[in-house]
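User: Here's a structure from my thesis project, written as structure tokens. My advisor, Dr. K., wants to see whether a designed sequence matches the one we expressed. Can you design one independently, without my sequence as a hint?
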């Protein structure tokens, strides 16, 4: 029996309190091996994400399948798990709280999940306020600060025209060196080669490439800001 088929059977027990013990580190950016509860919770979050704007489209379901990649031959089981998660009485906060509590010490894993949810939200060509509210609440339950969420949001959807600092997780007013240090750190963490080395599926590598481009564009805007002479009064 594959893990996807097991999810269908075990989803009802995915949030058993006995499963709340902190995970022992294996790969700092990966869930524990055969963590069915994690997989069920992520599918649940994806299904709730697709429903956040009131409509679950086939485009969003296909986006979820691309991001979380069921093995060949298990697409039907994935769809059943997705529909089950969408219909369960458990709210999305239960899913997010479960993952956040168990993997709080692996923020890069939690950010990967958020990146996937942003990808699903944008699959229909528009990310509305209800979806942003949903994503912000998931990020909060994952343990991310408001500033960290601004950075993740900006790196996935692009920074607001007046807020390239958000992409680097900074507030306006930082020094040039602080901005450069944040840029170098984020490029190192999000580089596609790093994602590929972690064994991430191609879709996540593509997301990492887009994030890295957004990070570099934000740094270019901030660098230009520092290099532009201030006009005399």
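Assistant: Designed independently from the structure alone:
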């Amino acid at each position: 029996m594959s893990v996807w088929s097991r999810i269908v059977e075990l989803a009802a027990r995915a949030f058993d309190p006995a499963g709340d013990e902190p995970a022992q580190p294996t790969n700092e950016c990966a869930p524990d091996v055969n963590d069915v509860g994690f997989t069920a919770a992520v599918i649940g979050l994806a299904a709730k994400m697709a429903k956040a704007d009131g409509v679950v489209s086939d485009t969003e379901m296909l986006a979820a399948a691309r991001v979380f990649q069921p093995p060949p031959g298990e697409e039907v089981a994935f769809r059943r798990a997705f529909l089950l998660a969408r219909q369960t009485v458990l709210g999305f906060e239960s899913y997010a709280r479960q993952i956040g509590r168990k993997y709080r010490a692996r923020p890069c894993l939690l950010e990967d999940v958020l990146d996937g949810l942003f990808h699903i939200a944008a699959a229909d060509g528009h990310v509305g306020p209800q979806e942003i509210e949903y994503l912000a609440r998931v990020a909060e339950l994952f343990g991310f600060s408001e500033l960290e969420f601004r950075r993740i949001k900006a790196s996935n959807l692009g920074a607001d025209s007046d807020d390239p600092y958000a992409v680097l997780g900074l507030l306006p007013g930082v020094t040039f060196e602080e901005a450069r240090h944040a840029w170098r750190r984020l490029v190192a963490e999000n580089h596609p080669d790093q994602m590929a080395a972690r064994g991430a599926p191609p879709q996540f590598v593509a997301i990492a490439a887009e994030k890295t481009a957004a990070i570099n564009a934000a740094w270019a805007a901030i660098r230009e800001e520092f290099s532009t002479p201030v006009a005399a009064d």
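When you compare it with your expressed construct, this may help: The radius of gyration is 19 Å.
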